[in-house]
Design a protein that fits this description.
The protein has 213 residues and is mainly α. Helices cover 74% and strands 0% of the residues. It contains 7 helices and no strands. It is extended and about 65 Å long. 1% of the residues are buried.
């Protein structure tokens, strides 16, 4: 066994054990590691925001390049501080409204383009779609399955008519495709979490304790 002598490896190993101790029950070691993680993450985020966002995008243009009109976004941003003054706390609504309005206007066109228009284009059966998966008959089969899955899934969410007849058949097929999608997404999530767990065990048994190479 080749135990590591690097203090940072020991710190990482001990903090990992502290987090795993929650599997037994809630305890002070877990709370210490949890609070330490939250504190470090917030400190890193604050430092990153100051040095990578505020300084290059606000402070330098305002105080170094003397762009006076940058006073306006500075004043709007400072209104967030009014949240801590009960008498003027209503002023915080102004920067929140500007932020939400800006990002909503920026995100909606991108979302429509990526999640609606591109999806519709990818679902339409064309000679190019037939060759999108594999060359030959396999591409045609997968393209048809994709088209059927999209149409049946959309029919399941059509609630203006009772699901009977053709609509009932397509909606039931849509449920199958929905469950397949949910199952694949859940399986992918589980695999990602298990991968993180395996990585932690490899760190404990490898670099920290030296049991495995």
């Amino acid at each position: 066994m080749n135990v590591a002598h690097d203090p940072w490896i020991w710190i990482g190993g001990l903090l990992t054990v502290c987090i795993f101790s929650f599997l037994y029950r809630d305890n002070p070691f877990y709370k210490f590691a949890e609070h330490l993680f939250v504190g470090v993450a917030n400190g890193y985020f604050l430092t990153f925001t100051v040095h990578r966002v505020l300084i290059p995008n606000l402070f330098n243009p305002l105080f170094v390049e003397r762009r006076i009109f940058f006073v306006l976004p500075l004043c709007v941003g400072m209104l967030y501080v009014m949240r801590f003054i009960p008498r003027f706390s209503w002023l915080v609504r102004i920067p929140i409204a500007i932020t939400i309005g800006y990002y909503t206007g920026a995100v909606i066109p991108a979302t429509v383009q990526a999640d609606i228009i591109r999806q519709v284009q990818g679902t339409i059966l064309t000679p190019q779609n037939f060759q999108s998966w594999n060359a030959g008959p396999a591409g045609t089969i997968w393209s048809v399955i994709l088209f059927i899955g999209v149409v049946c899934t959309l029919s399941y969410f059509y609630f203006s008519r009772e699901h009977k007849g053709v609509l009932g058949v397509t909606s039931r097929i849509g449920i199958i495709f929905i469950m397949i999608g949910f199952g694949a997404a859940f399986g992918y999530t589980v695999m990602a979490r298990v991968s993180l767990l395996i990585g932690r065990f490899q760190f404990i048994l490898g670099p920290w304790l030296g049991i495995i190479e």
